[in-house]
Amino acid sequence: MQFEEFEFFSSDASGGAPAPAHEASPLVRLQYLIDNTPAIIYCTVPSGDFKMTFVSNNARNVLGYRPEEMLADPNFWFDHIHPDDAPTIFSSLAKVFTEGQRAYEYRFRIHDGTYLWMHDSLRLIRDEHGAPLEVIGALTDITERKHMEETLKARGIEQRRLIGELRSAHEQLQQSEKMASIGQLAAGIAHEINNPVGFVNSNMGSLKNYVSTLLDVIDGYELAATAHPVLATQMASLHAQTDLAFIKEDINDLIRESMDGLKRVRDIVQALKDFSHVGASEWQVADLHHGLDSTLNIVANEIKYKARVEKQYGDLPPVICLASQLNQVFMNLLVNAAHALGEQGVIRLRTGAADGWVWVEISDNGSGIPAENLKRIFEPFFTTKPVGSGTGLGLSLSYGIVKRHGGRIDVASVVGKGTRFTVHLPLEPPLPAKG
Known about the structure:
The protein has 435 residues and is α+β, with helices and mostly antiparallel strands. The protein is built from 15 helices and 12 strands. It has a 5-stranded antiparallel beta sheet with strand order 2-1-5-4-3.
């Protein structure tokens, strides 16, 4: 089919119909159909610059160009494709000769300088000998469809973002509820333990005094027995049988160790209370060093067999904060540091303040974090731990807590050498965060 063989014409400018149907020849009907189809029909030479040899008259309505000016410029088609879309088309256009047809979607510059999205369907026409004769194309305006696709895509992205935020908020709520439950449990445990610990501690103090008195009485008996040889001999024999010298030395150590153990129990219970801050959901002035020490007591069992903790505390002013939530941040960072260590390692805690800000640095000399993971560690549910060993929420929740305080978390890591997390907090958080 070669349109060059026709004598082409078009409807008048007002869009009036051609001659009545009973007078129209088959070519007239064909011309009318081509000029009024939604697609712009065009032909090009099948080589070189693909110069256009025919363009249907509806190009004027869709693109704003007259068909004759499109035919006059041998580079018209190439020159009007958007520069960002052209390379993809040009690099694969030769496939039309092997596949017989191609379809593209690209932006085409129209008469007013703007671009329309077009769907271009090309088909190679061959002569009776199989030689390429021409390429016929059909250009359809798909701008509205593209806009709808972009709108749907944007809505999909927004929906995924909102779903992510809802999921994160849900997990944070669950975590907050869990922390509140831990706080209530801690309060109950503290109450139940403090009572027996209190009277045992009191009894140990009385026992220490009683033992001291009894030892003094024994010394007095031994001194009095020296005036009576028989009694002195009996006392010496009894002294040797009971190993009284060892008992005198060991009993004081036992009492001292028992009182130290009781103090340790009281410190742990107090640390648990301080860590949880039952009912403390309001902003308050807090000592971050006290929070760090309380948290260290809570995670001591996680750390003590793997790490030596070094403290380099600076001079920190009190900070307005949600203390229990910051303790949760410190706990996550300390536990992560312990998990990053091998058999033995060092966890270093450093603090400082400057220009209305304080910072808390928790570093380790463990395995480090690969660069490809470093960008994702604060994403919800991202974890490199084995399935069942971590939820991937610890750092995400920590990030949210610090952000709520108007601060930030910086991280630096070198694989094989260790990781450093630095929490930066303003002395006074922004007012909106207090609500």
